[in-house]
Amino acid sequence: MGNHRYPIGFSGDTHTTWESLQFQPYFTATATNVGYSWWSHDIGGHMFGIEDGELYTRWVQYGVFSPILRLHSTKNHFSERRPWGWRSEEVAKVAGDAMRLRHALVPYIYSMAWRNHTQNIALINPMYYTHPHEDSAYIASHQYWFGSEMIAAPHIQPMSDSAGVSGQAVWLPEGDWYDFNTGARYEGGGWTAVYGDLRHIPIFVKDGGIIPLAPITSENDTPLPQTVNLHRYGVADGEFTLYEDDGSSNAYVNGEHAQTIIRAVG
């Protein structure tokens, strides 16, 4: 691959099609196999295809749960990548909310970046990394570990005209799992059908999972949050190490950082 020392790349000039979107989760997760862990994508599709509000929204939602969120396209008057640029109020609202969620996830993602730096564990990993003896872990190529606490399986199929929802099969390992947004419980140890409208992103948190979130804000900067909202899922014991620094590239060298261990006891 050639860029292992500074493994930040992008997945090429993606097409504005469902097929191109469907390839990205598999492509990004398996890149971890060669140590190439920080991927950027032309979210929304770079060229060709047909501009569609639903497809654009699903691209953005996938981007929220990918290593680097970067909306981009070729110079084309019809390629709209700004959420507020769409005539559909629903698309603008859902895509905007997704991007604000990404901002709130910064404490979690930054902690995972520190884990990557110190433990060589990527932000995104294929399912078979943790379950190498499970055949289903190799088949579930459209889903992946997003950090230590979550399994992400963003919708990559268009919604049914009759039902008005997207659907897909998700494999969850043994144990209890909880919907990131609603807290709904899923029993692991097999495949489950998951359906959702345009707002729904299939994200599952393990039993005992702890997710630190910054407050939702309209600001575009990433200062240290004055408050952190801790979301705890399930009843099992859990532990999460929150990493923070002052933004300096030498912060971790000079000891100007903090690692806060957060524990939840069932």
Describe the model.
- The chain is of the alpha+beta class.
- It has helices spanning 18-31, 53-64, 89-104, 106-119, 135-139; strands spanning 8-10, 38-40, 124-125, 144-146, 150-152, 166-172, 176-179, 185-187, 190-196, 203-206, 210-213, 229-232, 238-245, 257-264.
- The strands form five sheets. The chain has a six-stranded antiparallel sheet.
- Helix 2 runs parallel beside helix 3.
- It is globular.
- The termini are far apart.
List key phrases describing it:
6-stranded antiparallel sheet, alpha+beta, two-stranded parallel ribbon, 14 strands, 266 residues
**Strand order in space, largest sheet:** 3-4-5-10-7-8
What share of the residues lie within helices?
10-25%
Give a short account of the largest sheet. Answer: 6 strands, antiparallel
Order of helices and strands: EHEHHHEHEEEEEEEEEEE
Beta content comes to 15-25%
Short précis:
This protein is an alpha+beta fold and 266 residues long. It has helices at residues 18-31, 53-64, 89-104, 106-119, 135-139; strands at residues 8-10, 38-40, 124-125, 144-146, 150-152, 166-172, 176-179, 185-187, 190-196, 203-206, 210-213, 229-232, 238-245, 257-264.
